[in-house]
Design a protein that fits this description.
The complex is a heterodimer. Chain A is mainly α. Chain A has 6 helices and 2 strands. Helix content of chain A is 51%, strand content 5%. In chain A, strands 1-2 form a two-stranded antiparallel sheet. In chain B, a hairpin with a 6-residue loop joins strand 4 and strand 5. The chains are: A mainly alpha, B alpha+beta.
């Protein structure tokens, strides 16, 4: 092999760099785990079913925003439970999900999304502390 | 079947065209341009009595109440709780002199009576013909058809400040700085704003939705602020305006402002 003394170490260095992520994962305790958002302690039921909320909470919140701010329509009727709720992020959602860090942020950080709700809307627990 | 001559065919055709267009002309002529377009039964307005306000010249109850519940920041408050950082000041309701509020009334020493020495509480006039709404490129501000409140959607505001240029009353403030660290005590039931958003008085629409009066009206000990529906002849605001002469700011601009200042 021509220039083997360059090629072989070069290949080894390339492979070492290439497998750094794999090595890092094993060194730090296996592949990353999906998040486990902390559910509220004293409430078992959200405004809709858990699966529906997981898929659609962002659209629901945008719809609530439009309804309240632009159409003065402040009451939501759950199609799953046929119950009425006040359309409010801080006063309805966060009343049960009062720990934003362990609930909202756990998934949002994992999924790499950064919704800007909190730039304006308050988290009562964070405000009081 | 009888054959039409060319002359007959053309005259019949002409008549058909005239007949068909006549209905359009008639409906256009019959249209009443002055017919009322607004059929809302609610027209909220603020009636302000500066003479009562003048009884306590140092009182700031309405300002403090409003700014507290709406998370209005104070960047550099003095001992009285007034903003000294005028460049960044955010204000929903504020106190001004007569000259500042009614500069076009200069020289009118009679109709305005003692008003020249009285403090004027200024706020968004919730105009019937709001220039801020006309210039907003994103419809972040609009006049609510159901009650005439000039609304603000902070989500949609892009901070272009056209509305601030459009408003002849200086009722709008721009957040040049992040306001949140400067809100003295955050009211969690109302959002704060971010840098780059315009804000103003919203006639406490969030309180009206719960059946409460605006915070400034509730806070005023002198009962100098009367909020009500002018379309309702039994409302206090309507009754006051029926009896007393009231000024509105810069009426000549045609904005039809809905804050009335009773002369004394």
């Amino acid at each position: 092999m021509y220039d083997g003394k360059y090629i072989v170490p070069g290949l080894l260095i390339f492979l070492a760099v290439f497998f750094i992520p794999t090595a890092y994962t094993y060194a730090t305790g296996g592949p990353s785990q999906p998040p486990k958002p902390a559910l509220p302690a004293n409430e078992t039921q959200c405004v809709e079913s858990k699966d529906w909320m997981r898929d659609n909470h962002m659209q629901l919140l945008v719809q609530w925003r439009e309804d309240v701010v632009r159409n003065n329509d402040r009451t939501y009727t759950s199609f799953t439970y046929n119950k009425q709720y006040k359309k409010s992020l801080t006063n309805t959602c966060l009343k049960c999900h009062d720990n934003k860090q362990d609930f909202c942020d756990s998934c949002h950080t994992y999924a790499g999304v950064s919704p800007n709700c909190w730039d304006c809307h308050n988290v009562p627990k964070e405000v009081s502390s | 079947m009888r054959r039409l001559s060319r002359r007959q065919f053309l005259s019949i055709g002409g008549l058909v065209v005239v007949g068909a267009s006549a209905s359009q002309v008639m409906s256009a002529l019959a249209r009443d341009e002055k017919a009322p377009v607004a059929t809302a039964t609610i027209r909220y307005a603020m009636v302000i009595d500066p003479a009562k306000c003048a009884q306590d010249p140092t009182c700031r109850d309405c300002i403090d109440a409003c700014h507290k519940i709406h998370n209005v920041p104070l960047f550099a408050p003095n001992a009285q709780g007034e903003e000294t950082d005028k460049a960044h000041e955010i204000k929903w309701i504020w106190k001004a002199t007569f000259e500042e509020a009614f500069d076009e009334q200069e020289g009118d020493n009679y109709a305005t009576g003692g008003m020249k020495e009285q403090p004027m509480m200024l706020l968004c006039n919730h105009c019937d013909n709001p220039p801020c709404v006309r210039v907003c490129p994103t419809q972040a501000t609009w006049k609510r058809a159901s009650d005439g409140i000039v609304m603000m959607d902070f989500h949609r505001c892009i901070g272009c400040r056209f509305c601030m240029s459009g408003c002849p009353y200086g009722s709008r403030s721009f957040n040049f700085r992040d306001p949140r660290p400067f809100v003295q005590e955050i009211n969690t039931s109302f959002p704060t704003r971010t840098k780059g958003v315009v804000e103003k008085c919203n006639f406490c629409e969030e309180r009206l939705a719960q059946g409460q009066p605006p915070a400034c009206v509730e806070a005023c000990r002198q009962k100098a602020l009367v909020f009500g529906n002018l379309e309702d002849p039994n409302s206090e605001a309507h009754k006051i305006l029926a009896e007393r002469l009231a000024l509105r700011r810069k009426e000549h601009l045609g904005t039809r402002p809905q804050a009335y200042y009773i002369t004394s």
